[in-house]
């Protein structure tokens, strides 16, 4: 979990905290969607990085593992499989297993129904397959 205190006071502090969250979750790399957004929608990119990541995501109380599992479940339940995929990737990066993510999707059937869970399962299967193929090709 990020060591800096929550509720940074300046925009620059929030942006730096948000950047630290991304680096921690994304194996030290920037987040491509956020960086692409910065080209055309710099305010939206800064607001996402500063508020969503720098304020909310870096709050004390939950570790990153729990936050990622919650994010995957929430995005799957509302049918936002693109965001779910991104957060599932982060979850895998920080040690959440494929089996745990599958259980999250099984749970989604209760509050959100089978169609949302099935869509989420298809996206996760693609992510798992891509990661396995990349691991096989790694030296």
UniProtKB/TrEMBL annotation:
For this UniProt entry, the molecular function terms from Gene Ontology, in alphabetical order, are: peroxiredoxin activity
**Domain of life, per lineage:** Bacteria
All residue ranges annotated as the Carboxymuconolactone decarboxylase-like domain in the record? 44-125
User: Record's Gene3D superfamilies?
Assistant: AhpD-like
Q: Name one Pfam family in it.
A: CMD
Q: Which InterPro entries match?
A: 4CMD/NDH-1_regulator, AhpD-like, CMD-like
Protein name (record)? Carboxymuconolactone decarboxylase domain protein
- Source organism per entry reads Hyphomonas neptunium (strain ATCC 15444)
Upper classification of the organism = Bacteria, Pseudomonadati, Pseudomonadota, Alphaproteobacteria, Hyphomonadales
């Amino acid at each position: 979990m990020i060591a800096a205190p929550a509720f940074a006071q300046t925009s620059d502090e929030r942006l730096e905290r948000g950047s630290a969250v991304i680096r921690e979750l994304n194996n030290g790399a920037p987040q491509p969607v956020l960086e692409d957004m910065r080209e055309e929608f710099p305010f939206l990119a800064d607001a996402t990085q500063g508020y969503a990541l720098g304020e909310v995501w870096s709050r004390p109380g939950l570790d990153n593992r729990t936050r990622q599992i919650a994010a995957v479940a929430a995005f799957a339940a509302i049918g936002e499989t693109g965001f779910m995929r991104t957060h599932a990737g982060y979850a895998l990066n920080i040690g959440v297993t494929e089996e745990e993510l599958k259980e999250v999707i099984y749970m989604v059937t209760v509050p959100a129904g089978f169609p949302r869970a099935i869509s989420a399962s298809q996206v996760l299967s693609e992510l798992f397959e891509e990661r396995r193929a990349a691991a096989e090709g790694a030296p």
